[in-house]
Amino acid sequence: MEIAIISIGNEVLKGHTSNSNYTFLARQSTLMGNHVKRGYIVSDDPGEISWAIGEAMSHASLIITTGGLGPTYDDMTLESIAKALNLSLVKNDAALEMLRKRMIPRKIPLTPERMKMAELPEGSEPIFNPVGSAPGVLIRHSGRQILCLPGVPQEMEAIFNSVKERYQNPDLHYYEESLEFPGTMEGEMAPLIKEEMKKFGDRLYIKSHPLSGSASGYSVMLEISSYNKDAKEAERLVREELELFRKRFGKNIQ
Amino acid sequence: MEIAIISIGNEVLKGHTSNSNYTFLARQSTLMGNHVKRGYIVSDDPGEISWAIGEAMSHASLIITTGGLGPTYDDMTLESIAKALNLSLVKNDAALEMLRKRMIPRKIPLTPERMKMAELPEGSEPIFNPVGSAPGVLIRHSGRQILCLPGVPQEMEAIFNSVKERYQNPDLHYYEESLEFPGTMEGEMAPLIKEEMKKFGDRLYIKSHPLSGSASGYSVMLEISSYNKDAKEAERLVREELELFRKRFGKNIQ
To answer: What pTM, to 2 d.p., does this model score?
Structure first.
């Protein structure tokens, strides 16, 4: 499954808040055998949100958004998506029930601002938020799915975890290992990486990350990963490759 | 100045590494009176990099990229940008001198892989990397600037800090304060936020972030910011607004 992730919110866009939601979702999606194709960071602006949705729908079958589902004036994700897809916003009874379930025992009044969290694009599936108010929202449109999650990390993770089984790729498994090579420079490994990547094509991915710029303490983190229909085969290939690099460059590994 | 930030690299795209570079650059750009318009996260793929560059050039006057400047086969940022802008890659003598300056005292051989770091799009300005090998690269094209920085955070920050004065907006100052309101729910603040934002238009930005989903411990972080030609005026407005919210909702502030 090709996935696009859209981070919505001025606090992330302006660097006031780190984009940990992106990292979580991209990692989970990858580990479930999917390909994360692109990430977008946009403001709480209907035009910007619509642009990102349209762009993402041109190449991804699952689009995950975070942010903009709350009760305030600048929570505009659902409204903007509805507009982009030419859908009406309608009161969703299941979503309203979810809000009541959270708010009534806590004596939180269901004001017009809060009712907004139950106004969903027509045909949406609300997903219960076990740790906050705003439900997650799944929109199916033109053969794509748009999964809208809140921006508060605990809420985003709880909702995502409650539906993530749906997005496990049954036909493609991902395996990955990393190993640090102290005293090795990235450039030394470059020719072997190139050779091995060429040999295995799509099945193998090798990436080196220099860990330090200091000349005396340089070190490379090598990340080797594989997608395969056969989970064991992915693991075997990664381990075999890691062994090859360890033999060649691992003289300083403890 | 309208700014776009492009994060290049599979490790960030797949969520293996957090995108702290984005947060740093977006924050710095904002504090210098600029508007960060969009962020993009793309893979180490020439087509993807070219797409992001073309997209960003359609709306930003400064485009900052991170990642893909190193010596390995998948460091393809400069090559991809050159292609997107129809420029040749040429050996840049100043960049080569920077590489020599880093490598000769450290007895690091200048292999063909490492020489690649001095092949820049024609007309580029290399920027010395004081903590690593790959120089930063500034490309001027069609009235826009593209500032290419390495992906290693220490290197990225050091290079950015050495040139950031150029991007200080002399005509627009940014001021921001945040305050936590314990025991307040986002929905309670929503009407006043809406009212104040409407009153001041472009000059004032107010954003509420719920800090916890737990009903007993809920709390809101309020962020108030202002851009103004007059730095003192921006500060005055933000403080006045914060005081208004504190009077109305600050009963639990210690």
So the answer is: 0.88
